[in-house]
Design goal:
Elements: H1 2-7, E1 9-11, H2 12-19, H3 23-35, E2 39-42, E3 45-48, H4 58-61, H5 66-77, E4 85-88, H6 92-104, E5 109-113, H7 116-122, E6 128-131, E7 136-138, E8 143-145, H8 147-154, E9 158-163, E10 167-169, E11 173-176, H9 179-190, E12 192-198, E13 210-213, E14 220-223, H10 229-237, E15 241-244
Parallel strand pairs: 4-5, 4-9, 5-6, 9-12, 12-14, 14-15
Antiparallel strand pairs: 1-3, 2-3, 7-8, 10-11, 11-13
Helix pairs in contact: 5-6, 6-7, 8-9
């Protein structure tokens, strides 16, 4: 594990030569460590397990990896068609999508969001209807969560959902740092015909406190070009369409 912490990744071949054991032994040991969450298995080796996803206030998150988020949002809005109902969660990347929607003036459009920031960004546009569920305000993300928000979402149906995540791991799944937020995001996935995760490369390989859903519950991932190619291959292997921008 110390070697992996230093180098970030190792191959089976490297470990065979270093410890003078068989490839089968190395693979078995790596599988055990991966099942314990200590590393990530990759094709032909292993990747360092990243630290748990941190939680920052929205005001900070909105400025992190800004250029990557803007590129991701630009590609995401190309998927939106007039007359659709879309879901946007309270992520900083989905906020960039809202800004793009405002600029492009896609209409008519219905936007379901639990984000006060997103709803404020799109408020006042005559061609956009905004549905904001009730619930408890979460100050860190300016999002509505809890039983009332969940109850409202259960009664809805959407064409597409665009969701940000705090962590995306091929085995662990989609995750976030907030348990109640995870339940809201899970419902957003359930009510949507198509689900697109919008996340910069720093979210890949991370694990948040609460699982939202397994990776095969989504249809598409839009992330930036710096994403680890082995992680991308594992995500694609789950049937997810991956777009690098």
């Amino acid at each position: 594990m110390e070697i992996l912490d230093t180098h970030g990744r190792l191959t089976v071949e490297e470990l065979v030569h270093k410890f003078h054991v068989t490839a089968a032994t190395v693979r078995a040991d790596l599988n055990i460590l991966a099942s314990s969450g200590l590393l990530i298995r990759s094709r032909g080796g292993a990747l360092k397990q990243e630290a748990p996803a941190p939680e920052y206030p929205f005001s900070i998150r909105d400025h992190l990896h800004k250029a990557e988020k803007q590129r991701i949002a630009k590609v995401a809005v190309e998927l939106i068609q007039p007359n659709q109902t879309i879901v946007l969660d309270s992520g900083s990347t989905t906020m960039e999508i809202a800004r793009q929607i405002r600029t492009l003036k896609i209409h008519p459009l219905t936007v379901v969001t639990n984000s006060l920031q997103v709803s404020t960004e799109l408020a006042g546009l005559p061609h956009i209807s905004i549905v904001l569920p009730g619930g408890v305000l979460r100050p860190n993300s300016f999002s509505m969560i809890g039983p009332y928000a969940e109850r409202t979402l259960r009664e809805m149906s959407a064409d597409q959902a665009f969701l940000g995540v705090d962590g995306l791991d091929p085995v662990y799944g989609l995750s976030t740092t907030d348990m109640l937020g995870a339940q809201v995001d899970a419902l957003m996935i359930q009510i949507s015909r198509q689900v697109t995760i919008v996340a910069d490369a720093t979210k890949l390989g991370r694990r948040g406190l609460s699982v939202i859903a397994k990776i095969n519950s989504i249809h598409r991932l839009i992330t930036d070009r710096s994403a680890d190619r082995q992680l991308i291959d594992k995500i694609k292997a789950e049937g997810v369409d991956v777009q690098l921008v």
